Write a sequence for this structure.
């Protein structure tokens, strides 16, 4: 699998490198498909520094993924992938 990281991630969040995003995708704890066209995958994983990060990616070719969003994980994404608490 080849992972391409959109450059705007590093521009918007200079503390998160493309390699951090690739490591996060490789270390995904949980992900799920969103009902979009093309299908987007949202995931949560650990980078090489022990940080929990979220990402959103699309498959642009067979086994080639474009990650266009990467950030410190939010409560809403944790809930979306089934790792957060339900608000009750």
């Amino acid at each position: 699998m080849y992972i391409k990281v959109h450059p705007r991630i590093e521009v918007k969040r200079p503390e998160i490198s493309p390699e951090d995003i690739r490591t996060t995708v490789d270390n995904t704890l949980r992900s799920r498909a969103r009902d979009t066209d093309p299908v987007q995958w949202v995931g949560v994983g650990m980078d090489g520094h022990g940080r929990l990060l979220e990402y959103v990616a699309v498959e642009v070719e067979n086994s080639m993924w474009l990650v266009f969003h990467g950030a410190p994980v939010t409560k809403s994404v944790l809930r979306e992938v089934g790792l957060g608490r339900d608000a009750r």
Summary: The first strand starts at residue 2 and ends at 5.
